[in-house]
Design a protein that fits this description.
This protein is of the alpha+beta class. 41% of the residues lie in helices and 9% in strands. Helix 9 runs antiparallel to helix 10 and helix 17 crosses helix 18. Bound molecules: 1-deoxymannojirimycin (DMJ).
């Protein structure tokens, strides 16, 4: 016994003097406090921590990959990763936003063409905040007036003549893209129907674990693309599947971000384009399932959510110290605002507005937004800043929130231009060869690498150029063009004319992947996305030419017998395919190509913003939507 050796302590029955007892007790209680405190610093995976700390919101969990799509590689079931769940509150107090129910709509051809059903819209919008009114979002679904919405569009969604241009070469190219879509779709339908993606080499389906047991990602992601391309037979098959087979009663762990951008985004677009009521019902039902992810001490959602009734959420096993990812929690705004719009339930908007509030309060190093934030403390967890994976679509959603609000969301505007200024001051670089690029920032040290994902920023800076300070507008447009040019260079410098996953500007290289594991191309859209925006903004024919180069390269290197596949190395002509036709190829890559070869009035930027999965969402013209006078300017297609 230790005590026997202490001077002044008798061996008989611990005969301690009173003062000694006091000191001993003091020491003991100090020790216990210390041990308990230390638990908070243990990694979340340590069992002791899970036993002693409550399973609720005190728990940060692990890591995740924002819009680094390859998060799917990391996306193992939470339990496999030793993640600790935080159980969400079982019910959320909902504020209801009630309108007098209007005449419910039927899916008629007339409405598809923007028919003007008369509805009683004379009642002002009422916000009832009562604890006793716990409205389910779906209670108010029939109060959104589709015909009113259509009447507030400036242009027919599909433009004149479906967006067909008067230039024969452009039309041929557009037809080619449509054929690629049909080919991808037909093979998906034949070999992978109802699964999430097609595996074109093995001719089977892939389910994966990003969507928590939800199925049909390629179907949901394709609805709007098929619709705008006029592939109506295919669209109708997709629609029927959603109506009869899309089962939202899944109990699996899903990426909040991925479910939001693909499923919520895809269903919202399908609704706004077609007016089919069941899309609205489904999307609001799904939206409700995502709410428990926000039950954290700060309201910053965790990355992984159980779609079942448990309301459990986790942080990614790979995200440092249980943090949430900027590109994940920062890429909900557009869809959530529309969920509130359709359900007349403000809760969705409140959730995303709160994210903004947290971000506005916290100090930003050099004005930059690091990629990892603790949903528990609301502090940054690491100082890694990137316009590519982990950060990307957060910035995109700032400017798009502003545009989607009909330029009334001044907060979003301020945050966007503030962030852009910091990005320019700290990340934008010029290579010795004259290429402009966005480096990554690690606690003040620059990593001279640009990911394929970061190539969306050409388009983003382009669409935001016009609302910047007057003296900066041309500069922003030039910057957008320079970045798009650099991304095009990353394509032209490869043997296949497709770009690598990441390219670097060091060790003598410029716009080329210097590391073996950065050489792959998984049918990503970002470079083509920027071509599309830059075409619309400048009408410089080079963007259409660059898009056509990409079509040819895709045909040559990614088209296989039964679909399109990613490739493992863009620098070699002996193709090694990855056997995956990503759902974003159908929703983004092919849609942006099709838009590039169409007239600007097909999904006009005056009426629509695209979510980060290229699903078009309408600009909310509040004054028009709430104008009690019937709309006379209903557009027809
Ligand atoms: C898409 O799912 C989205 O564009 C996301 O924002 C980033 N990654 C993929 C495509 O590369």
């Amino acid at each position: 016994m230790v005590f026997r050796k202490l001077p002044g302590v008798s061996a008989s029955g611990m005969g301690l003097r009173l003062s000694q007892k006091f000191v001993f007790l003091l020491f003991l209680s100090g020790l216990v406090t210390l041990c308990f405190g230390a638990l908070f610093f243990l990694p979340d995976s340590v069992r002791l921590k899970r036993i002693f700390l409550s399973k609720t919101e005190t728990q940060p969990v692990t890591v995740g990959s924002g819009s680094e799509n390859d998060a799917r590689e990391h996306l193992k079931r939470p339990k496999e990763q030793g993640m600790t769940p935080a159980k969400g509150e079982s019910s959320t107090k909902l504020k209801s936003l009630i309108r007098k129910p209007s005449v419910s709509h039927e899916a008629t051809e007339e409405r598809l063409a923007g028919g003007k059903a008369q509805e009683d819209l004379t009642l002002p919008r009422l916000i009832t905040e009562s604890a006793s009114v716990k409205a389910s979002s779906s209670d108010n679904l029939d109060t959104f007036s589709y015909s009113k919405f259509k009447g507030c569009l400036l242009k027919p969604p599909l433009g004149r003549d479906g967006g067909q241009t008067s230039d024969p070469t452009t039309n041929e190219r557009r037809e080619k893209v449509k054929e690629m879509m049909k080919f991808s779709w037909d093979n998906y339908k034949r070999y992978a129907w109802g699964k999430n993606e097609l595996r074109p080499l093995t001719k089977n389906g892939h389910i994966g674990n990003m969507f928590g047991g939800l199925r049909g990602a390629s179907i949901i992601d394709s609805l709007d693309t098929l619709y705008i391309m006029g592939l109506m037979e295919e669209y109708n098959d997709a629609k029927e599947w959603v109506q009869t087979s899309l089962d939202l009663n899944s109990n699996g762990e899903a990426s909040l971000f991925e479910v939001n951008i693909r499923y919520v985004g895809g269903l919202l677009s399908a609704y706004y384009l077609t007016g089919e009521e069941f899309y609205k019902k489904k999307v609001v039902e799904l939206g409700e399932k995502l709410l428990p992810a926000f039950n954290t001490p700060t309201g910053i959602p965790r990355g992984v959510i159980n779609l079942g009734s448990s309301g459990t959420s986790w942080s990614w096993g790979w995200a440092s110290a249980g943090s949430s990812i900027l590109a994940e929690f920062g890429t909900l705004h557009l869809e959530f605002v529309h969920l509130s719009e359709l359900s007349r339930n403000p809760i969705y908007t409140e959730k995303v507005m709160n994210i903004r509030k947290v971000l506005n309060k916290i100090e930003k190093p050099h004005g930059l937004y690091p990629n990892f934030l603790s949903p528990v403390s609301g502090n940054w967890v690491q100082h890694h800043v990137s316009i590519g994976g982990l950060g990307d679509s957060f910035y995109e959603y700032l400017i798009k929130s502003y545009l989607m609000s009909d330029k009334s969301d001044d907060d979003a505007k301020k945050m966007y231009y503030g962030a852009l200024e910091a990005i320019e001051a700290n990340l934008v670089q010029k290579s010795p060869g004259g290429l402009t690029y966005m480096a990554e920032w690690r606690g003040g040290i620059l990593d001279h690498k640009m990911g394929h994902l970061a190539c969306f920023s050409g388009g983003m800076i382009g669409i935001g150029a016009d609302d910047g300070e007057p003296e900066k507008r041309q500069h922003y447009l030039d910057l957008a063009a320079e970045i798009t040019h650099t991304c095009h260079e990353s394509y032209t410098r490869s043997a296949t004319k497709l770009g690598p996953e990441a390219f670097r500007f060091d060790s003598g290289g410029e716009a080329t992947a210097t590391r073996l594991n950065d050489r792959y191309y998984i049918l990503r859209p970002e470079v083509i996305e920027s071509y599309m925006y830059m075409w619309r903004l400048t009408h410089d024919p080079k963007y259409r030419e660059w898009g056509w180069e990409a079509v040819q390269a895709l045909e040559q290197h990614c088209r296989v017998e039964s679909g399109f596949s990613g490739i493992r190395d863009v620098y070699t002509l002996t193709a090694s395919h990855d056997n995956m036709q990503q759902s974003f190829f159908l929703s983004e890559t092919l849609k942006y190509l099709y838009l590039l070869f169409s007239d600007d009035d097909l999904l006009s930027l005056e009426d629509w913003v695209f979510n980060t999965e290229a699903h078009p969402l309408p600009i909310i013209r509040r004054s028009c939507l709430e104008d009690p006078a019937p709309q006379d300017k209903t557009v027809s297609e």
